[in-house]
Amino acid sequence: MSPAADQYGVFGHPVGHSLSPFIHGMFARETGQEMSYRAYDVVSEEFVVRVREFFERDGRGLNITLPHKIAAVEVAHELTERAAHAAAVNTLALREEGILGDNTDGAGLVRDLCDNLGIVITNRQLLVLGAGGATRGILAPLLALEPAALVIANRTAERAEALAAAFTDLGATRGVGFTDVGDAPFDLIINATSASLTGDIPPIPPSALGPDTVCYDLAYGRSATGFVRWAEDAGCARAFQGLGMLVEQAAESFYLWRGVRPDTAHVLSLLRVRTGST
Ligand code: NAP
After folding, report:
1. For position 89, what pLDDT does the model report?
2. Is 203 helix (H, G, I), strand (E, B) or coil?
3. Which residue, judged by its Cα, is nearest atom 43 of ligand 1?
4. Which DSSP string corresponds to 122-189?
5. pLDDT at 255 over 70
6. DSSP secondary-structure letter at 4?
7. Ligand 1 centroid vs 97 CA: distance in angstroms?
8. Ligand 1: centre distance to CA 135 (Å)
9. How far is the CA of 132 from the centre of ligand 1 (A)?
10. pLDDT class for 278, splitting at 50, 70, 90?
11. Bridge partner list, 91
12. Which of 25, 45, 186, 208 has the fewest CB atoms inside 10 Å of its own CB, making it the most exposed?
C-alpha cells in the first residue's frame, strides 16, 4: 500500500475483534481502490477529539461501532436522512462542506434479508427484539418495505414504546415488553438485543414463533448464536446470524466513501471460512 493511500478506519472500544479491516481490505483489493483501513481503539472520553484529529490529518472516512454510534451524531456537521431518523451514526465521510454522518446498518440488514436470503418483508408481521442503537438504525429501512405490522419488544418496555412512537410516521409500529408481543406467530423475528453476548434469550412467548417463522440474529459468532440455536430448537423455518448484514453495511459505507459498490458475495464466503461461521 502506498504511503499516499487514502486513510479509513473503524473507531470502537473494544475493537480488536473487528472484522471490518479484513472486509474493507478485501473490498479495496477487489475494486482496485488505493486506500488503507485500520481499527482504532478509542475510549468514549477521547472520541470527539480523536475523530477531529483523524479528519484534520487527511483521514477520509470512518466506521463507528460500539459504544460511539450516538456520540458520532454530534461530531458530524451534516446527517443523511436515515442517520437523522436513527439518531445514530455508523459511518463518517469527509465532504467539502465538512463531516457527513450516515447510518448504513439498516440498508445492510435489508440487503442481506431481501437480496441474499430472499426474505419478504412487505405485508408480513415483523417482531424486532431490542430498542438500542441497532434497532434505531434498522427501523426506517424495514418500515420503508411496508410490513403489515412491526412490533418492537424490549426488556425495558418504555424504551420500546418511545422508539415506536418516534417511528409511527413511517409505518405501523407498536412498542411492548417481551411478554406482551401477542399470541400469534410472526413471519420474521429479528434479534437486535445484545443478549447473545451473554448467552441470554429474550423471554418472548413460545407462540410468537411458528413453523413458518424466519429468525435473524444481528449478532454473529463462530458457531450458531444462542438465539439462532433457540429458534432452531423451537422449530422455526430458518434462522440466520448477522454476518451477512455486517458485510452489506460495510459495502454501503464503502460505496459512500468511494462511489464503487463492491461484490459482497465473495467477501462473505471468504469471511465464513475465516471465522468458521455458518
Ligand atoms: P445497545 O444499544 O447496547 O442495545 C442493547 C439492547 O439489548 C437493548 O435493547 C437492551 O435492553 C437489550 N439487552 C441487553 N442485554 C439483554 C439481555 N440480557 N436480555 C434481553 N435484552 C438485553 O446495542 P446495539 O448497538 O443496539 O447492538 C445490539 C446487537 O446488534 C449487538 O449484538 C451488536 O453486535 C449487533 N449489531 C450487529 C450488526 C451487524 O452488522 N451484524 C450491526 C449493528 C449491531 P434494555 O434497553 O432493557 O437495556
Report:
1. 96
2. coil
3. 134
4. TT-EEEEE--SHHHHHHHHHHHHT--SEEEEEESSHHHHHHHHHHHGGGS-EEEEEGGGS-SSPPSEE
5. yes
6. T
7. 33
8. 8
9. 6
10. low
11. 63, 102
12. 45
Ligand 1 nearest atom to the CA of residue 129, by list position: 9
| Inter-CA distances, 239 with 124, 143, 191, 214, Å | 17, 21, 11, 6
∠ CA 150-153-154, nearest 5°, is 150
Show the ligand 1 pocket: residues with CB < 6 angstroms: 66, 105, 130-135, 154-156, 159, 192-198, 200, 202, 218-220, 242, 245-246, 249
Positions annotated as catalytic residues are 69
99 and 92 Cβ atoms separated by less than 8 Å:
yes
**134: CA distance to ligand 1 center in Å?**
7
Could you identify the atom of ligand 1 that is nearest to the CA of residue 108? 40
Cα–Cα separations (whole angstroms), residue 241 to 40, 140, 195, 203, 257:
25, 21, 13, 19, 27
Helices within the chain (DSSP H only): 20-31, 47-56, 71-75, 81-86, 105-110, 133-144, 157-167, 226-233, 243-258, 264-275
In three-state secondary structure terms, 48 is helix
pLDDT for 100: 98
For position 4, what pLDDT does the model report? 76
For residues 105-127, give the mean pLDDT: 98
